[in-house]
């Protein structure tokens, strides 16, 4: 399985934009890039996913490099409720690989006033 | 809509005891998963199922068993509990064609 690399932790001030990077240099052409986040004492929740083009939804934006070897999750205005561990995960298209999500240790985002 | 429901939420087991973590989903999703998460770590896949009657091992299956007799239920059985199984357990599900995995709230298990 292709691996992802994320910084262990990041800090942000409230109301400021946050850019969470993820490197995935061994990504294959059919791997989707998924982001999940885990709030304290809760299960992970889906944030966003993409394949090649940048994506936007109500929670965040996903910017994917042209060579797809890296991506960035963008929170446009961080709030205290965004403090969580953010996981960048690759998921392949074929049924066997798609049955499994491999979680790394993620990036712990701290948001301060 | 309850989504993914796990019971119990908290449990303390003695070494050598057995128990079953229950997981049920009301979204009619085919794929179901069990993960464990140790303190400060990411989630590791224990077992998964692509549909009723079909299960397969994940990354860390030793010491666990699962069954999938219905689409809704995916119980995780711990036989002969060991301190190394102290962890938080998450059940999850996904539709065959969907991109989103839905997680339960977790079950905190301590083996003493």
Model description:
The complex is a heterodimer of chains A (113) and B (112). With 113 residues, chain A is mostly beta strands. Helices cover 4% and strands 44% of the residues of chain A. Chain A has one helix at 95-98; strands at 9-13, 18-23, 32-38, 45-50, 55-56, 61-64, 70-75, 84-91, 107-112. Chain A starts with 8 loop residues before the first strand and ends with a strand. The relative contact order of chain B is 0.33. In chain B, the strands form 2 sheets. In chain B, strands 2, 4, 5, 6, 9, 10 and 11 form a 7-stranded mixed β-sheet that branches. A 4-stranded antiparallel β-sheet of chain B has the order 1-3-8-7, with no helix packed on it. Chain B is globular. The interface between A and B is medium-sized, with 21 and 25 residues.
Main features:
heterodimer, A: 113 residues, mainly beta, five-stranded mixed beta sheet, 1 helix, 9 strands, 4% helix, globular, B: 112 residues, four-stranded antiparallel beta sheet, 0% helix, 50% strand
Q: What kind of assembly state do the chains in view correspond to?
A: heterodimer
H/E order of the elements of chain B? EEEEEEEEEEE
Residues in β-strands, percent of chain B: over 45%
Radius of gyration of chain A: 14 Å
Largest sheet of chain A: 5 strands, mixed
Order of helices and strands of chain A: EEEEEEEEHE
Q: What is the strand content of chain A?
A: 35-45%
Computed structural class of chain B: mainly beta
Let me know the number of strands of chain B. Answer: 11
Total beta strand runs of chain A: 9
Q: Whole-Å distance between the termini of chain B?
A: 36 Å
What's the pLDDT, averaged over the residues of chain A? Answer: 90
For the termini of chain A, the CA-CA separation is: 39 Å
How helical, in percent, are the residues of chain B? under 10%
C-alpha geometry of chain A: globular
